[in-house]
Amino acid sequence: MRAITFPILLLLLLLTSCNEYQKVLKNTDVKAKYELAEKYYNEGDYTRAKRLFEQIAPKYAGKPQGERVMFFFANSYYQTKSFYLAGYQFERFIRSYPNSDKLQEASFLEAKSYYQLSPKYSLDQTDTEKALSKLQVFINTYPESEYFEEANALAQELARKKQKKQFEIGKQYAKLGELYLLDFNVAAGTALENFVSENPGTIYKEDALYQRLVALSNLAFNSTYSKKQERVENAMDAYKALLKSYPESEYKKQADNLLKKLQKEVEVKDGITK
Question: Which of 46, 62, 81, 113 has the highest CB neighbour number within 10 Å of its CB?
């Protein structure tokens, strides 16, 4: 009997709750909407809470409860993974209530909303840039925050994603250069040099230095006589840069083979046969 009664009772409670929600949603009683929205919010039912807060937020603008309503409204968007709207609403909250006790948390969640929107590295990184900017502002403003470590970890993750995109562009140029498209070797050499210069601590530094050596070597091997000497020297400099930073590089064998070929190019140019 108990096994039958409990599911029926649960169903009745759900139906009652649903009817209450629909009734309050449709009426014009702002106070009733506020009370039910807060009830749902505290219970973790952010979807229903969000719809009610959406209706009443404009009504509470400038009122004592406005700060509370606006924060709950923004966080309801975040909790339901509506990150664009969450970021926007947290921005509005920060502008509207610069002295709020919730300002630090709102600033972190605003930045984290944009972090959640950051796509994989191969896509446009506009949202990544915005998230990094927001996280950096938070890190600089709240160095003692309980969210500091997480914010710093998120910022580092996004920075690595940006670096990977930059590195992959240079790497792709180098691959195209292997097809005897000399302009891509030039582009690869420049892109990878800039990448290492701008990101000296990147985890992709060794890969970038090697790919630059490959690109400049291919450029040298396929150059006209008048340009060969300078380009061979540039490639040799790239070899030295790789081995200086990574004496035991995983690419050392390949790099040494390229160096031997480059040295032969010099010997041939000077009319020496060995």
Answer: 113
Residue 243 to residue 154: CA distance in whole angstroms = 32
Contacts with 48 (C-beta within 8 Å, 6 or more apart), sequence order:
21, 37, 40
pLDDT at residue 259 in the model: 95
Distances, alpha carbon 123 to alpha carbons 132, 155, 188, 211, in Å: 16, 18, 20, 22
How many Cα atoms occupy the beta-carbon half-sphere of 145 within 13 Å?
Answer: 23
Asked whether 246 and 209 are in contact (CB, 8 A), the reply is yes
pLDDT of residue 176: 85
| Alpha-carbon gap, residue 75 to 200, rounded angstroms | 38
* Spatial contact of 91 and 105, defined as CB atoms under 8 Å apart: no
**Contact predicate 143/181, CB 8 Å:** no
| Angle ∠(107,113,116) on CA atoms, nearest 5 | 145
Q: How much is the pLDDT for 61?
A: 86
| Rounded-to-integer distance, Cα 33 and Cα 28, Å | 8
Q: What is the pLDDT of residues 74-104, one digit of tens each?
A: 999 999 999 999 999 999 999 999 999 999 9
Per-residue model confidence (pLDDT) at position 68: 95
Where residue 61 falls (left for φ over 0; alpha for ψ -120 to 50; beta otherwise) is beta
Query: Which of helix, strand or coil describes residue 150?
Result: helix
Is residue 42 within 8 Å of 34, Cβ to Cβ?
Answer: no
